[in-house]
Amino acid sequence: MTAEDGDPMTVLARRDDTTCRVRDVLDRVGSKWSLTVINELGPGKRRFTEIKNSVPGISQRMLTETLRGLERDGLIERTVHPVVPPRVEYELTTLGRTLLDTVRGLLDWALDHIDDIDKAREAYDDRS
């Protein structure tokens, strides 16, 4: 073992910490609401109400939480315009844009295979 390798316990702890952080990121960007919001922001800036109206089934509270989480992770930017009433817009950051192709690919895959998944679920349920 070289000095650069470090103590095996330190290396394991560092790997475990990284694994945990990666899971945290995947939990955020892999949620159904985050995927949809990222996709909706693909074309450009959107206001809260525009996003809410384009994401069927999302509550105001869940959209607020999703936007805050994506903002905290640096994936979207929130801009408040100093007008009355205040106008707030959301857009993908440069980092968020790096996810757009992946998100769209995953959404497209789900759309392409939803019937196959439904059949598999039905067959599984029939066996159970």
From TrEMBL:
Q: What is this protein called?
A: Helix-turn-helix transcriptional regulator
Q: Which UniProt keywords apply?
A: DNA-binding, Transcription, Transcription regulation
UniProt superkingdom: Bacteria
Q: Which organism is it from?
A: Streptomyces endophyticus
User: Species lineage, top-down?
Assistant: Bacteria, Bacillati, Actinomycetota, Actinomycetes, Kitasatosporales
Please give one Pfam family short name. Answer: HxlR
SUPFAM superfamilies reported for this sequence: Winged helix' DNA-binding domain (SSF46785)
Q: Which PANTHER family match?
A: TRANSCRIPTIONAL REGULATOR, MARR FAMILY, TRANSCRIPTIONAL REGULATORY PROTEIN
Domain named HTH hxlR-type: residues: 20-118
